[in-house]
Amino acid sequence: MLDKTKRYLVVGLGLLGGKYALELSKAGFHVDGINRSEGHLQFALDHGYIERGKTHDFEDLVREADHIIFGLYPTALIEWFRTYGPLLKPGCIFTDVSGVKTGLVEPVQALCPAGVEFIASHPMAGRETSSVEHAAEVNFAPANFIITPTGKNTPEAIAWVRELAEVLGFKHICTLTVQEHDRMIGYVSQLCHAIAVSLMCANDNTSLCEYTGDSFRDLTRIARINDKMWAELFLWNRDNLISEIDQFDAALGALRNALAAGDREKLEEMFRLSTRRRAAFDKKLPE
């Protein structure tokens, strides 16, 4: 079980960072916070998500932290760690919430001071909303929590982040390599967002709300998107995402060709394959 005498520090009190702070505080842990926005920091303080918090001159919070959760974009995390990483005390184990690991994990691990360890992880529980004000709306129980260890990680750090996920409420926890994670995320997350964005950008949709159905609403739910975060994630994982877009483009092209040829048999074949794969997927979904 995690030691409740340890001090936790959340750097970046956004949607996920705020949810981590909320759940850890509810579980009886000592949680501090660092955030760029004074208003969001004050919200976290007023609602008991954190005990202490600062927007600047926070070196003391960094030095005192036994564990740190980084709720930052990959670029911001590396920049922050280059500046403040040397302040982390020996024995500190920390993790992140980033949706891309290649280009992040290796540089940060290389920057770690002696006795400090970075074990990367990814809570797949994002929403269309953002900021700490919406953190309480996030439900970790049905979401996947992915741990991405490297050869530099100790069994102790891996066990810590797994126990952290359990305290946070995740019911499904798995382990992937950094490369496996980014290939997987290119398909199951980033490609889906790319399709939703493309669908909304294909034409002017301003009047569709008057007559659209559930299909359009479901397909475009994630098109309401954090532009800065997703642009960064797409670019950091561009090779994997381009490969997935090409694969999707080929499948859509096959459907288009069947339509152009009036090939009902091919269309029905694709529909049957899609139905079978979705049924198999539904059976494996965590309850």
Automatic annotation (TrEMBL):
Pathway: Amino-acid biosynthesis. SUPFAM superfamilies: 6-phosphogluconate dehydrogenase C-terminal domain-like, NAD(P)-binding Rossmann-fold domains. Residues 6-287 form the Prephenate/arogenate dehydrogenase domain. The keyword NAD does not apply. It comes from the Bacteria. Gene3D superfamilies: 6-phosphogluconate dehydrogenase C-terminal like domain, NAD(P)-binding Rossmann-like Domain. GO terms for biological process: tyrosine biosynthetic process. Keywords: Oxidoreductase. One of its GO terms (molecular function) is NAD+ binding. Belongs to the prephenate/arogenate dehydrogenase family. This is Prephenate dehydrogenase. It comes from Faecalibacterium prausnitzii.
